[in-house]
Amino acid sequence: MKLPGHDAMARRAEEHLDISRVQMPRQVVESPLRQVAKRLLMALCVLALTVFIVVVDRSGYHDNADGAVDVLDAIYYATVTLSTTGYGDIVPHSDSARLVNVLLVTPLRVLFLIILVGTTLEVLTERTREEWRLNRWRSTLRDHTVIVGFGTKGRSAVETLCATGLKKERIVVVDPSDKVIEAANSDGLVGVVGDATRSDVLLRAEVQRARQIVIATQRDDTAVLVTLTARQLNRGAKIVATVREEENAPLLRQSGADAVITSASAAGRLLGLSVLSPSAGTVMEDLIQSGSGLDLVERPVIKAEVGKSVRETDDLVVSVLRGHRLLGYDDPAASPLQLTDRLITIVRAKPVSSLSSPPE
Question: Is a pLDDT exceeding 80 seen at residue 91?
């Protein structure tokens, strides 16, 4: 199903008419000029070693021109031998010279050729290596997080997830722009180029095996389409979507989103709160920014807290999640706490290194 007026994501994908693909973060390699310089230096070293071997044993070689082999003849012989040209005008004559050719010069000839064609071989094997990395990535990817849209909202979502301990290897970015995916790759993230409203694009991101899906598109109609497609492919994933207009939030929930964030109204409320009370606005902004100051954390109830009231816990509890019901801290039904409850608490932010495991 397509809604009228695709956003920039869909339009750019259709303009390129490009098949969606997965882009892995590029491995750090040396510059091409430096690689060529190193290969040339190695080739010259092999050539110099071959010349030295021939000069040391030049009495065992015969030159058809004048019979004797000098340094220039040794350089000439080493050059034509390593390049496998072999004119036959200078040949090893003694048994020792022939033995040295078998044991030393021949391996040096092979090494010289390997060095010269190394760059070509590297280009030929680059695609094979990338396919191997991609297949290995697909086989090991489970319970990951898919970020649809890598604009300001998508980047902020990734930063927050990483601040709470989620590894970048467990995040996949989907966006129709090549440049955006290249930026994600430079940040160490795997990216999928393509229109996320298409199921084949989401399948390339392994959305069917994802644990969490964050939808941060630029337009609300695209967010609805992506949510519908993602929910059809994965019934159990937690889907969080953002919309610009609050009136579209119910449509996102009906499409399968577990949580919907209204970006425009949320920013407006924060602005209004900051006008009325700058300190309160600062506290709210601190809570939104993960990894510094105060953080909002969802955690399970521990055994020592079972049977206690909300106010008797060590943390500052904001809400209690009991099944599908979200109870406020002042709701009489929230106490006593049960072992299956989950608590939304305000805690002092901890460094990422101190976190034992990524959040669920």
Answer: no
Residue 218 phi, psi (nearest 5): -85, -25
Does an H or E element contain 191, and which? Answer: strand 190-193
Buried b (16+ CB within 10 A) or exposed e, 146-179: bbbbbeebbbebbebbbbbbbeeebbbbbbbbee
Place of tokens 């900051």: 274
CA distances in angstroms from 312 to 294, 315, 318, listed in the order given = 20, 9, 13
Q: Could you tell me the pTM of the whole model? A: 0.59
Give pLDDT tens digits for 214-233. 999 988 899 999 999 999 99
Most confident of 9-18, 63-72, 75-84, 324-333: 324-333
Per-residue pLDDT tens digits for 228-281: 999 999 999 999 998 888 888 899 999 999 988 887 666 666 677 677 778 776
- Decide if 23 contacts 191 (C-beta within 8 A): yes
Which tokens in the block code for residue 228?
């519908």
With contact defined as beta carbons under 8 Å apart, do 293 and 283 qualify? Answer: no
Give SS3 for 345: strand
Buried b (16+ CB within 10 A) or exposed e, 107-126: ebbebbeebbebeeeeeeee
Cα angle 201, 179, 20 (rounded to 5 degrees) comes to 20
For the record, the structure tokens of 24 come out as: 């892995």
Residues near 133 by beta carbon (within 8 Å), at least 6 away in sequence: 24
* Structure-token pair, residue 270: 């924060």
Helix axis angle for 118-140 and 106-116, nearest 10°, is 70
CB-based contacts of 317: which residues, under 8 Å, 6+ apart?
310, 311, 329, 343, 344, 345
**What is the number of helices (H) and of strands (E) in the chain?**
13, 13
